[in-house]
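Anyone opening a protein record will find just a pair of labelled lines. A complete record is shown below as an example:
=====
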Amino acid sequence: MSDLFRMRRDFMRRFDIPSPTRPEFQPDQLAMWQTMLDEELAELQQALAEYRALPAQSPEQQRHSRAELTAEAVDVLNVVCGLLLSQGLPLEAMCEAIHDANLRKCVDGKVVRRADGKVLKPEGWQPADKAGVIRDAEARGISPPIEMD
């Protein structure tokens, strides 16, 4: 289990926030997660806007901009992890499946990119079996809750 996922699960467990180990629709929690995600994304966008001005900033301002961008990105990751944990969804397994599919965008050492640098899908590329990851989580569950000391 990744450290970020483990830390978020630990937080949720300590504060008695439900986190089932199998996919389980928890509609009563979705409004809260949506609001938190909206708030954190807005803060990340603000930090990114400030970070874009980095070259014109003093060294102290640059340090502050870097710290804010990093902290706001971590807050977004925490909320996303919490959302998925609250619904019993397999974050790690899905990350692995998507990562493997993304690596297949490089064929025989060749990568096709857009003008802005984004890696493009080659001909014949197949996406991750996302539904299969969910089926597997329904059958076997996701990582068990962390035991607290």
Remarks:
- Residues 59-86 form the longest helix (28 residues).
- The chain has two domains: 1-89, 90-140.
